[in-house]
Design brief:
homodimer, 354 residues, alpha/beta, 10-stranded mixed beta sheet, two-stranded antiparallel sheet, 21% strand, globular, binds 3-isopropylmalic acid, NAD (chains A, B), ICDH/IPMDH (chains A, B)
């Protein structure tokens, strides 16, 4: 019996469209003949909003929820367009999906592939995963503005951290560390954000007692940025809150060869909702439609997707093909499709023919 | 008539004691015979707290307020000591001083001196200043924990941003840019922290209209970390909130040769309260008392102090001596006092003898 993998794609805006096309082609090449991939493309994004006034409705969520997983490109239009101000697309689409589908594990592996150039002079071996909490913290949208536009304006942002929310992501991080280098680093700012800090510290320390073979340590977020540029090899699994995770994963992407290579998964581990896989980079309106974008991050996100839906061999074929492709990248510039096709070809060559 | 410079020193804990001693000696050598430096040393810090139960009382604040400026070392004891948990010293001493003395400009210059090694392979010219807001944002301590220790625990952290607080630091940043490279970069996360983001964006854009010759741009905090490692030369003045500033300044310190070189000022520009100057690094209990600490960051902080109290020539003598010393640093390790003495000697040679 053929296994069906039913995917939603949300290419989004700008280079999102170009990179998702390549990622999908690679994914299809990777699964082999025993898996039938069906895809439904959804038009959501800044352009769609400007054209229709719609961002993402509850009916859209219900439709998307039918799929097994979501492959997401990037969303966002011209940053100076006043109609897109205030993060309306980011909040109304990307964050809405993460919250509605309870993507509490925002999984961001960082690996410096051999032959990829890092901006660091001596990076050492970079191979760690940032487990970023995805459904609470300062991302909840809580807060407000009073006396707006006056000299007495006050704006607040409230970070919400629950034992329920922190515990589950911390547990996931320790379980991941069990399968990797057996080390967890909690990153927070417990000496200043003492309320949330105490919750995170307590729950990490409690979970650690269930994993005697995993060592764990703690770093303030400011110190963590130092180590990411001076000694990234020290990290195995980093667990942190939504905002710190946002910051650290971009930095991690940068030191491991740029966010053109950084993949991510917005994961609901229990499978109550479809998980969503997306490159860390944005829609890059300035180079959109020019076949200049590197589809590698989207392709590696497709590998995370395959792993998540229980096709680890197909996932491994993709990461191996990417690794081989990276090793042979010279200074010649290739188009988005050329990179995608080269990787797809390698994947196809390794995939079972029957 | 001799100008008197009446300083308070708070050496604090660990290496704070060692580096403040050197910074003070250099400062005294720099001012020349026309300035009489008087100093009063205060014992505050983790050790003092453990010995006496006192951190910093209102009477201490009143006494400190009498001085013209404060030279601060570093505070903090053994991070695993439960008596110091929850940032009790950081909040009760360092942050209390910043808040009580209205240090709304947390000034953190970043300069990669020629001959200093950066962890970046190709840093380019690094010379920018981070103007970090020092009295509000997520540092206000607002928030709390309910149902602590239960599965229903909820912890909150509230970031408070006022037009009053944001406007004055933004104004300071633009005025600084006027005297430097005429560029301001606002760093925030306006697409997610939309409430505070709107206040910051509006006030930066309003202040910009008073400075037609200063260009300004905006970066999300995550993107800013990428540029700090891929293109730090693009920055001139960065203005940002208390927490983002904390994170970015450690990263900035790291790329410019390490926080052993990173100086800072907690400044009340109006002089309503004494400003306080401190190295960005911590008390480093692991190497304390061993003469292993680099006093350069504390010495450069003393230069910021001299500049602030209206002795810019003495300040320049210090930075020039540091620059010359850095240029001649080989691989030989020197003790804290050796570095301090070498810089003090250079400074003395350049200072007026009468
Ligand atoms: C686009 C934005 C809302 C998003 C985030 O802050 O999470 C992005 O930066 C990311 O890291 O996925
Ligand atoms: C010690 C700590 C409270 C402090 C801060 O977070 O401001 C430090 O990291 C700094 O940057 O001066």
């Amino acid at each position: 019996m053929t296994r069906v993998l039913d995917l939603a794609t949300i290419p989004g805006d700008g280079i999102g469209v170009e990179v998702v096309a390549e990622a999908l082609a690679v994914l299809k090449a990777a699964v082999g003949p025993d898996v039938e991939v069906t895809t439904t493309e959804y038009p959501f994004g800044a352009e769609h909003f400007l054209a229709t006034g719609e961002i993402l409705g509850d009916d859209d969520l219900a439709t998307l929820a039918q799929h097994e997983a979501i492959l997401f490109g990037a969303v966002g239009g011209d940053p100076r367009d006043p109609r897109l101000a205030g993060g309306i697309i980011e909040r109304g689409l990307l964050l809405k999906l993460r919250f509605a589908f309870d993507h509490y594990v925002n999984l961001r592996p960082t690996k410096l592939y051999p032959s990829v150039t890092s901006p660091l002079a001596d990076p050492g071996e970079v191979d760690f995963v940032i487990v970023r909490e995805g459904t609470e913290g300062p991302y909840v949208g809580n807060g407000g503005v009073i006396r707006q536009g006056t000299p007495h304006e006050i704006a607040t942002e409230v970070s919400i951290n629950t034992a329920y929310g922190v515990e589950r992501v911390v547990k996931h991080a320790f379980e991941l560390a069990e399968k990797r280098g057996k080390k967890v680093t909690l990153v927070h700012k417990t000496n200043v954000l003492t309320h949330a800090g105490s919750t995170w510290s307590r729950l990490v320390s409690a979970e650690a007692s269930n994993h005697p073979d995993v060592v764990w340590d703690y770093l303030h977020v400011d110190a963590a940025t130092i180590f990411l540029v001076t000694d990234p090899a020290r990290f195995d699994v980093i667990v942190t809150d939504n905002l710190f995770g946002d910051i650290l994963t971009d930095l991690a992407g940068a030191i491991s060869g740029g966010i053109g290579l950084a993949a991510s998964g917005n994961v609901n581990p229990e499978g109550a909702f479809p998980s969503m896989f997306e490159p860390v980079h944005g829609s890059a309106p300035d180079i959109a439609g020019q076949q200049k974008a590197d589809p590698t991050a989207a392709i590696l996100s497709a590998a995370l997707l395959l792993d998540h839906v229980g096709l680890p061999e197909a996932a491994a074929r993709v990461t191996e093909a990417v690794s081989a492709d990276l090793a042979e990248r010279g200074s010649a510039t290739r188009t988005t499709s050329e990179v995608g096709a080269a990787i797809a070809q390698r994947v196809a060559a390794a995939a079972p023919t029957h």
